[in-house]
Amino acid sequence: MINKLIKKIEDSKAPIVVGLDPMLDFIPNHILERAYKDKGENLEGVGEAIWKYNKGIVDATYDLIPAVKPQVAMYEQFGIEGLIAYKKTIDYCKDKGLIVIGDVKRGDIGSTSKAYATGHLGKVVIGGKEYRGFDEDFITVNPYLGSDGIKPFIDVCKEENKGLFILVKTSNPSSGEFQDQQIGDRPLYELVGEKVAQWGELHMGDNYSYIGAVVGATYPEMGKVLRKLMPKTYILVPGYGAQGGKGEDLVHFFNKDGLGAIINSSRGIIAAYKQKEYEKYGPAAYADASRQAVIDMREDLKKALTSL
């Protein structure tokens, strides 16, 4: 799957992943009202609205981008109906040829890790037939429990030709409370990065590992260090746009080949119509605003990467 992701990045000339992280106040009223009319002003109606909202964004952007990243918590908050919307979104994105990175941040040990991996990346056999749960192509995982927590995921990834993005240095302001702590003379995030590179050797693609890393855009200097520590690791970089990351800040996340990183933008794209720069589109044309935001992000990154 990493080879497929890289090919799509090269073909689209856009190392971009759109974060499908819907919130109710992002969804235009005309979508909500129609969903409530059809399904009721309840959880089922919200699930329908989320699905229709996502579909509009995907229809407007799928030809520009290689991948999407739905954040499962934004769906789980609405219970089963939210998870139905999550699954419908995944299936639709894959039908459109997009790579799906499930932002689920799972982490446990033993049979529990394997069950998480099976539910999101693998399959179960019932009555002699195979069934898949959510069926993402990649998922995000938390390494805090160590190798016992990661290896069951890697085992399923190897069986299914799928991959992981492991949290190394996250973009939130308080990440340093743990991730920056000194272990000997080095910060913890560097040691985690080295471990991710080691895990990556267990499941390699042609030039990059199926086992990637998450490193926040808000820490470009740390990203520069981690890029050197993980030369064959693809880096998923959240924090572009709404969290302050800009193309010029992100060049060090890439290797000299212009590959090695994929940059996530969530609200900066899916709620673009709410931003001053794109407010002319209005709620009715929210998807067109999202498309323009992707085009602008692609050009910003292209300009920045000319310095490599």
Would you kindly provide a written description of the structure presented here, covering whatever features stand out?
The protein is an alpha/beta fold. It has 2 domains: 10-99 and 276-300, TIM Barrel, CATH 3.20.20.70; 107-265, Aldolase class I (TIM Barrel, Alpha-Beta Barrel). Helices cover 45% and strands 16% of the residues. The chain has helices spanning 2-12, 29-39, 43-61, 73-76, 79-95, 110-121, 147-160, 176-179, 188-200, 220-229, 267-270, 286-305; strands at residues 16-18, 67-68, 99-106, 123-126, 129-132, 138-141, 163-169, 182-183, 186-187, 211-215, 235-237, 261-265. The strands form 3 sheets. An 8-stranded parallel β-barrel has the order 1-2-3-6-7-10-11-12, surrounded by 7 helices. Strands 4-5 form a two-stranded antiparallel sheet. A hairpin with a 2-residue loop joins strand 8 and strand 9. The longest helix has 20 residues, at 286-305. The chain is globular, with a radius of gyration of 19 Å. It starts with a helix and ends with a helix. The relative contact order is 0.14. The model has no long low-confidence stretch (mean pLDDT 94).
